[in-house]
Amino acid sequence: MKKILLLNGPNLNLLGTREPDVYGATTLADVERQCTEHAARLGYALECLQSNWEGALIDKIHEYGRLYKSGEALGCVFNPGAFTHTSIALHDAIKGVDGLPVIECHISNVHAREAFRHHSWVSPAAAGIIIGLGTNGYLLAIDALVRRAA
């Protein structure tokens, strides 16, 4: 069974308690459970990783680049959190694994928020972007990977 990576960056471990007016009351555990069940219904295994450390995210992208090339992975759904706006290293990691489809996903509409959130270093390397649809965006990103591969 091919794998999909659900990757979440800094502070997303605080979902459900951090700024619920912006991010809602759904916890990261809820998101991971919903996404795991959704991926299974579509015939895929889901691996989840959340890290506040940029290097851990980069290492996991590298790993999935190898899995994708060997036919074991379908792609990655990635909410880079605040690293979206600061990390050229994440951009380079995605570009460096040449071919791994990454769907960038954000719970809130970053373009309706503070100006510093309007730029993403990840977007130019991503296969697609889902922004502002709440945690349902994660499910849509999984669907996008599956449809893209069909």
Question: How would the blueprint of this fold be written?
Answer:
Layout: E1 3-8, H1 20-23, H2 28-41, E2 45-50, H3 54-69, E3 73-79, H4 88-96, E4 102-106, E5 128-131, H5 136-149
Parallel strand pairs: 1-2, 1-3, 3-4, 4-5
Helix pairs in contact: 2-5, 3-4
Enzyme class: lyase
Organism: Amphibiibacter pelophylacis
EC number: 4.2.1.10
Structure description:
The protein is α/β, with parallel strands linked by helices and 150 residues long. The chain has a single domain, classed as Rossmann fold (3-Layer(aba) Sandwich), CATH 3.40.50.9100. It is 38% helix and 19% strand. The chain has helices at residues 20-23, 28-41, 54-69, 88-96, 136-149; strands spanning 3-8, 45-50, 73-79, 102-106, 128-131. It has a five-stranded parallel sheet with strand order 2-1-3-4-5, sandwiched between helices. Helix 4 (88-96) links the parallel strand 3 (73-79) and strand 4 (102-106). Helix 3 (54-69) runs parallel beside helix 4 (88-96). The protein is globular.
